[in-house]
Amino acid sequence: MAIEETSTSLFSTLTSFFLPTAHAEAPEEEEVVEEVVEEEPAEEEEEEEEEEEEDPEDLAPAIRDDCEANECQDAGKHFKHCAEKVEGGKGWEGEDCVEELFHVMHCVDACAAPKLFKKLA
């Protein structure tokens, strides 16, 4: 079975496989007991404004994909070659390409970190 190129990056596919994703659980619905509490209208407006603020867009995935596609091509090619060899049954017994995966991840991290920190400043 050969590895097919897809629109998702190799790094994001691999990290989703090796690193589990945690999902927040939905809050349990509780019985609402209505109480009459007098609040000032200004407090309600402030709370609404805070809720409407959106989180900024995460730039990390785009930067990591760019690093993988440009600076880390060699490491990615070595990993793909190893994966094709192992899936084709030509690798030695127990071969798993983890070392090649770590080389790709290290290269992407080393490339992306300075770019991400520049965006924070």
Characterization of the model:
There is one protein chain. The model is unreliable at 1-7 (pLDDT under 50). The protein has 5 helices and no strands. The protein has helices spanning 10-18, 41-52, 60-69, 73-87, 98-120. Helix 3 crosses helix 5 (98-120) and helix 4 (73-87) packs antiparallel against helix 5. The chain has 121 residues and is an all-alpha fold.
Structural class, judged by helices and strands? mainly alpha
Q: Categorize the overall geometry.
A: elongated
Q: What's the order of the H and E elements?
A: HHHHH
Q: Averaged pLDDT, please?
A: 77
Given as residue ranges, the uncertain stretches (5+ residues, pLDDT < 50) are 1-7
DSSP helical segment count: 5
How far is the N terminus from the C terminus? 46 Å
Q: Calculate Rg over CA atoms.
A: 23 Å
Q: How many strand segments?
A: 0
Strand % is under 5%
Percent helix, as a range, is 55-70%
Largest sheet composition:
none
Name its key features.
121 residues; mainly alpha; 5 helices; 57% helix; elongated; disordered N terminus; mitochondrion inner membrane; electron transport; Ubiquinol-cytochrome C reductase hinge domain-containing protein; Ubol_cytC_Rdtase_hinge_dom_sf; Ubol_cytC_Rdtase_hinge_dom
